[in-house]
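Teaching note: in complex prediction, the entire set of molecules is handled at once rather than each chain in isolation. The prompt given to students was simply: 'Predict the structure of this complex.' The entities are:
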Amino acid sequence: MISREDIVRDLKEFISFPSVSADSSQQQAMFDCASWLAGHLYEIGMQRTKVLPTSAHPVVYGEYMIDAALPTILFYGHYDVTPVDPLNKWDTPPFRPAIKGDYIVGRGASDDKGQLFTHIKAVAKLLQEGRLPVNVKFLIEGAEEIGSVGLEEFVAQHKTLLRCDAVVVSDTKMVGPGQPAITYSLRGSVKVEVTLRTMAKDLHSGTFGGYVPNAAIKMAEFIAGLHDKDNAIAIPGFYEDVRDPSPAERAFVAANGIGNAALMQEAEAFAPWGESRFSMYERISSRPSLEVTGITAGYQGKGFKEVIPAVASVKLNFRLVPDQEPGRISKLLEQHVRNEVKDADVKITYGAVGYPVIIPRNNFYVRAAALACEKVFRRKPRFLRNGGSIGAVDYLYTILGVPVVLLGFARADDNMHAPNEKFYLPDFFKGIDTIRQFLQLVASGMPKA
Amino acid sequence: MISREDIVRDLKEFISFPSVSADSSQQQAMFDCASWLAGHLYEIGMQRTKVLPTSAHPVVYGEYMIDAALPTILFYGHYDVTPVDPLNKWDTPPFRPAIKGDYIVGRGASDDKGQLFTHIKAVAKLLQEGRLPVNVKFLIEGAEEIGSVGLEEFVAQHKTLLRCDAVVVSDTKMVGPGQPAITYSLRGSVKVEVTLRTMAKDLHSGTFGGYVPNAAIKMAEFIAGLHDKDNAIAIPGFYEDVRDPSPAERAFVAANGIGNAALMQEAEAFAPWGESRFSMYERISSRPSLEVTGITAGYQGKGFKEVIPAVASVKLNFRLVPDQEPGRISKLLEQHVRNEVKDADVKITYGAVGYPVIIPRNNFYVRAAALACEKVFRRKPRFLRNGGSIGAVDYLYTILGVPVVLLGFARADDNMHAPNEKFYLPDFFKGIDTIRQFLQLVASGMPKA
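The expected output is the structure of the full assembly:
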């Protein structure tokens, strides 16, 4: 029997690698962590364990094939973590994991090393007992926190290796303490930077103030025109492909989603915002959004500089819902810029794009996951739509063409991406049990929900 | 006789000090330059030469009093220069002045070491010849390029020392080659930063995108509302104190000012901008202006970050005309912010303010300067209004209560504040002659214009 102490000891070792994918000085730690992880998969009895290169950080792979006729589950997770800044806000060193009461504390405790370990340790137990009931594969990437760079190409190149019947991801949150959640929808994403130039060079704000076009003002006018009076996106044609939720789906979302009060509390915003004819939860799930993520113009240091900026730029982030398509949204934006911005040179550059994803809730694997949750947590899971985008989910769903089950075990206050990141150990062990139940339900052909 | 060679040699020595007031690592060079300058005033025969402390860089003072009953002219200039960046764009080292054809090249060649030297060398010649006809004083500051920090207090504290009948400043440009100019009006200035906070913290643009108030968007809307459709300033009450120029003054400005084509060529802007019912020259001289000098919000690095900014700030620069008052403009802005910006914490901070200045053109000293120009350049000077603000002029005019004559000898293409700053030597020597003529005209009680 693998003891809880052994499991926690292994998790602490995993967390102790400073595998910060965004930090180029941690290249060695990234390799060490990937090697350790591949070794760990080997130790628990996995086959064909290896570290595979990508265009960014390497991927760790392992599998255990019992019988090609049985279903195959692909577990996806990531061993990279976010930077630890501000370091002085941590009560204990981020890469020296500590047990505090019922929590394990450290960078990656919940995002995603701890949650990934629910998969690994469930499989380890079943292997040790000789009771693994289906085929399993692991795909563990090292670049999730920097946008899953290289993963799309990797999945496309290794389609055969990764062939499976469903993907399971544990990198999301539960709704509240003791209340499990399955995420079945993610928004797509278009990131774009628009740069305007109105003059050959910056000019003096005194000598020239009043007769030349200020790029910062022109940019502000452009941004102010991106939303209408009800905060809907004012780009012509933008909503054409937005799938109207059926009354049934709208009712389901209302019943399962999160209420305005809870959302406002989480945001700590001074006032609500957005399209008034939709609930806040709908605004971040069934509706697309457009946020300004950065504006740069003129002088930004201390004090003042007497300058009329010749150049201004804005970073925009669109979030898309079915059936919006990133390429079409880009075209609409470009047309809108041409219509609205006169007398300026315009440059438009794009970041990574992602497609919106919606997984049918009545899919067999989703229902198996829901029943597994119910057996372990003694509560039916809530079905959530998430306003964010997970690049890996988009790629796995699109390229492998199988359902992706997003089964999160983290709590809202686990400080993901923040100092003192933690993971509630009782949920960690329930997560292991849930994954185990899930695999057994998949093997047994679970009863209809 | 002081030879032209001696004068150029002295100017080269003056320029060779890297007296960059904005660069704290050049503190020693600032002191060395001030000491050298005080010594130089002593060498040419000035009395009571000294280096006096201010709250910023020291001031150099010197005087030559012939007879308290005679008029006293105070020459103002500055020995500090702007930073030399980008250094790689200089053809010769900025602090190793070089003679190239008819030009002297180096940082400070025209702004303001060369122009100041027209005063010093005119006085030097008259002293050497024993023909100085009026009392003269020099006030040479070391902080002009950083906003004349400390000068207002210095002038107020040394009112008696600085007592005079007129101030002469040579820190402006001529209209064109061979065409002298006297600047008789400057705009005032209010610099202010407005910071908005809409949430306790930045939020994720996916998870929260669509229901929380984005500070960058709110800021863009605020900025877009600062000007109306005809680009007039949309702050209620803003134009109440703007003095309407008389038809005579408007005609004078039209005849003396700079045309739209020349202004557009100078600006290298892709299109004109501003209040259509005024000429471009009027927009930068008799009309106030409001420019955005900087916007900061969200992520400004390379690539993209998934963030909804909780905070955004804008730096604004108002330019004021008679009879606008900085304190009243600040109050109007604050009221406007209260009216327009809802559901946000607002912080407003101010930089240095300056009052608009207009010197009567028919003043005796202005007329003497004009006649001196005409005698030397063989052309009547053009009378200009300048859109900029010169803090020192504001302080000297307001505190000493005497006319300030702005008599510039630089050319438009002298690269002030830019690489390869230069000064046209024939104009430099004409400048010396003009100052000499001016002092003689003041002494003789020149004929009516």
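Point out the following to students. Chain A touches chain B through 80 residues (CB under 8 Å). The mean pLDDT of chain A is 95.
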